[in-house]
Specification:
Layout lengths: L4 H16 L2 H24 L1 H13 L12 H21 L4 H16 L8 H17 L6 H28 L1 H28 L2 H6 L2 H23 L6 H22 L4 H6 L4 H26 L14 H6 L7 E2 L5 H26 L8 H4 L14 H4 L7 H22 L7 H10 L4 H27 L4 H17 L5 H19 L5 H22 L7 H25 L9 H27 L10 H27 L6 H20 L16 E2 L10 H27 L1
Helix pairs in contact: 2-3, 2-7, 2-21, 3-6, 3-7, 4-6, 4-7, 5-6, 5-18, 6-19, 8-10, 8-11, 8-13, 10-11, 10-25, 11-15, 11-26, 13-15, 18-19, 18-23, 19-23, 20-22, 20-23, 21-22, 22-23, 24-25, 24-26, 24-27, 24-28, 25-26, 26-28, 27-28
Length: 728
Amino acid sequence: MPKKPGLQFLALLRTTRRIALSSYVANGMVAALGLLLVTALVHLLLGAAAGAAAGVGAIVVTPPDQPAPKRGKFTHFLPAVLIGTPLFFATGVLRQSGPALALLLVGATFCAFLGAAWGRRGLPVSVSVMFSMVFALAAPRPGDIDQALRETLAFALGAWIYILWGTTANSLLNPRYRVLAVADSLWAIAALMRTQGLHFTMEPEAQRRTALVGRLMKQQATLADQLQAARNLLLEAPTTERRLQLAGMLMQVLDMRDHLVACALDLDALRAAPGQQELLRILGIELQALAGDLEQLAEALMLQRLPPAFAHQRPALAAAAAQAPAPGLADLHAPAPELLGGALSRRVGYVHDEVTRLMQLARGERPPDVAIVRTAWQLFVSPTQWTWRPFLSLWRWDAPPLRHAIRAALAIAAGYGVGMALPWGSHEYWILLTIVVVLRGSLAQTLERRNSRVAGTLLGCVLAGVLLRAQLSPLVLVLVVAGAQGVAHAFALQRYLVTAVSATVLALLQAHQLAPDVSPVFEVAERVLDTLLGVSIAWVFSYVLPSWERTQVGALVARTLAAQARHAELALALAQPSAGGGQPELAWRLARREAYDSLSALVQAVQRSLSEPRAVRPPLQDLERLLGHGYQLLAQLTAIKTMLLQRRDRLDFPRLNPPLEEAKQAIAGALARAAPQPAATGHEDPPPMLELPDAGERDLTPWVQRRLMLAVDIARELQADAARAAAG
């Protein structure tokens, strides 16, 4: 049912407010204010020319400036300024010699793009290094080496001032960034919860038509990335009362994700069973309502308000389902729908309990429990130190960072040659800048950047034309340029179309300030043509030495199998109380994170491969089955773990310990097989008949035994999927 206009307006207002108060917009404001500070300060002290060069230095070191923990923030800036400063000087000096400048651009581009070996930490530094050369080409050509040296010193001064500014601002905003990290995690899991609710109520045909399962997996991957970003901020030195509260909320979100994944169990059997559709509809509505509660909590955190008391009562769904007639003897793989419905109701109830605890934590009504990570938080956060290990490991021909570096160097060489051959070659740096921001490590990312860059340039040219025609004062233009820089930086990782529009306005207004006598109409037309040339070159070279996802899938699948085996081993070991305190749970939490992260990486690879030519795509159907079974195995283990930890008084451990040990060995053996295995259709022996407990009985041991056997079956299917994917 479409929303009413009033509701649509309120939803738009909430979305706009959420964006305006987000961490990336706050970070963009830091970038804009930093640019203003650097430009104004150096302009007052050393003059207009030095101020302009210092502003370029500030822009160059801006890409690595993202919301981050305090630890390692300063050192994250260092490669950009230490590498970018000499390159800025060398580019200015060599502008008198075309061949020497071309060699510098190509060689430095190759080295810069090797930064992809450091992953997400390295890519912003690569962009910064490239910006140092491209913006040196944008500046007026220095008359002699002394002038080039003076401009470089001003460049370095601006860069160091911004580094101090960015480090200080990040430290001051750290409490706000922590709150927003929790809020973003809540919005991400609420989105997953809403999709899960649709999964309960939507017919299979409608699910296929809307690609609902694919959306679930994509949201799982998004949530995994968001939770790791939140860990980096929230688990850094959780010492104060407020930090402990926020870290405790994150731990509740992590546990909530487990229960939410477990809610996917037995859905197909219940959907096919007569008389269970109404229960599924009620459970789906319950998940949707809980998602709304989480969104309200996230909004309260963002607005720095005390969340309202949680008035959403847990429905008595499990009790209602338990009133169904007991089935007596049941097949291990096909218990009565009433029992499955009761189990699913309880799992949805566990999600409700986690939301309740989360609300109590947010209101200060419940103390946080983060003793496990309080002393071992370094194990859960991303590394912040620079090491040579990634650099030493990429010197093989099939290494994606190496191939991307070669590809980028060739594209820059082609772009420079085309730029010099054009009749308006004085602005060839626009072509190079477009190549730098469009050419990504995968074809999917390059195509996305290509489309956004073209559309953003056209829109930005129109907006810049309007601003230039208005003949704004120099002071207003400076403020607009700083604002454009802030917007471009804020949305670079969120919505590149907005960044492309802002960057175009920034470039055209800066060009007008440097050369006010040049016709703005020609500047706009030149910008459009250079952008089209740049995106075309980037697109063409994205097919040169490509790193197709097919070549990376094998390593990702192996990582997934190893992570699942490790998680299964530790999750089932939680049944035994240990004298080691929280160490077993600490190891399990680390294994759980790796299991989710490995699946997330595989989901993202599958998504990227959809943009590749059909002839080089990996076996998508096998990989999608593997992903489905991977999440199913996590779900089964979560259900088992919940009973082992929260229902210990209803389990017969002397009878349960042998099946637990057998399941651990069977899962480890299944996931360790290297040879292709036929798809498992059940146990080699006939499935045993288990007498599942009646509704009123307390013994849950048969349920755990059933989950263990299903987990073993899924592990065998997971290995079979991996073998088929490797053979394909």
